[in-house]
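Possible regression after last week's pipeline update?

I re-ran a chain I had predicted before the update to compare outputs. Posting the input and the new output here so someone can diff against the archived version. Not blocking, just want to make sure nothing changed silently.
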Amino acid sequence: MSRDDDLRRNPVVCGALGGYDPGLVREVGRRMAGEMSVAHEDDRSILLLDRPAIRWRGRGQGFAWAEGRPGERKVGFWKDASLELAACGLVVQDQRRRVHSSVSGVAPVYHVEHGRAVYFASRIDPLVKALPKRLTIDWRAWASIFYLRFPLGERTPFMEVKRLRPFSTLEWDDAGEQRRTVQHRWPWAEIEPRFDLEHGSEAAVEAMREAVAPLETSPVTCTLSGGRDSRLLLCLLAERGHDVRALTVNPDSGHDREEVLAAEVARTLGVRHSTVEGRAAEFWGETRERALRVDYQLAAPPWAMPLAAALRGQPGAATDGLALDTLAQAGDTYYSESMIRPDGSAEVAQALWTRLLGQVMRHATGRVLSPQIDDELKSLARRQFMAEANRFRGHPAEVVLTFYATRTVRGISLTPNAVFGADLTTVTPCTDHRVAAALLETRPSEKFHARTYRALFAKVNPIVGELPSTHDGRSPPVITRPQRGLSTAAVHGYERVLANGPMERLLSGEVKRHLADGTLGEGLAERTLYRGVLAVTLLHLWHERYRDRLASDDPLDELALARPGRGAPQAAARSSA
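New output (post-update):
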């Protein structure tokens, strides 16, 4: 793959801080996709990138990589790079070396201690495969994956591998010979609502136009769904005369509602539009590939893989409407009006947990696992969620910040960043700091019931804003075509993986009967069972890939340590507000 090909996708990065082994860093780089070269190297730090670093000088020297295509903005400190450039980076300041994340946290930075150093990368798999180190399963992370579809906070499927939170820094402490992570005061959590809806939406539209402006110099593919987020981006791109086309994928749902709604939007705007539909024969291979791309951190079907393949080789960049629905308080699925009047108690967090669980996995894992393990893992997941939510307790935007910091960053962002972004640079303009700030500055009480969308479209394109969308709350359409995940090949794939992994002996009686009778395909036609099978399948695929890297022959041995009151190991990294 040429360097030009590397620049067509999201940045790929690795490096180390402390007394690192240069050979190990280069081995991590060799396992990353693309041609890596040294952007910076000294006796205390090293950084490898697949493209030229964004360099800046001020309070130190910075070597950054951006989530999107930022415009010309002044940078004099790492916080400026994180905010203004939507960038992560390495900062060299006197004898101090730090790696920082972006304010949105969309681009991941994973890190793990080894020897006298901490190694970091934009992917987990190369770190685990390259470092001669035995690792431990993190059952708290897997509990969250089982019940919410994704891990929480800094956790990953491995106890020793962590992810930097938004607006955080990573250092190596020579004295203590351990990594040190600091969660700095997150600017988004410092914002107080001061705008009415009119002024807030005006500021948001202005910020969105500025965020998409750097895309004008090259072709743009807008990943267009049947919802409002992506169509608003398409309106903004079309109004500026961008060389833009729209691309829609059928999400393996068994109906064509997404394609029909998206096509009407593209027609209204006069934008070229095409659709992508996956083939049943490719489903299982895509399931495995998608699991690897997201580093086994998102329990969901591979609906995005056909779209990623269609993006491969395209010029320019792609766009994704990530986070707009979160920041705009869209719809009533996850938020209720009572949640936007927090009283400082745990009621908002509890209500959000209940809604998330109900919308995703409330009964799913219980259908797949035995009752005892189901209760234990659910309890682990709930305590983690409540701890994450506690960081924002009492904030006027408590529910929005909690939702973003959990579901959006740790779950939904993996699709544009790691799935689409592996084939074509995928920009998420709605996570731009100025866009987020404008939406968070808008009083929550005025945004409810999709009022923000109406206000935004009124300023951008009222006609498109009135077109039907998947946010309209209509009844689910009738299934009219085969679903790829229920094909014979897919069912056989699930059967083989379920029967050959560490959770096999803890499967529910229902699943064991389906496996014994050869009727799993019939069971998967029920959505709750299907989602539970996806979660266990993800863990089994993870174990299949990394069993030779794990410290224990049986990951279930570590589950006892994760249970309440059993003295679970503490992470070496610490966090500070």
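Follow-up from reviewer: compared with the archived run. The chain is about 40% helix and 15% strand. Marking as no regression found.
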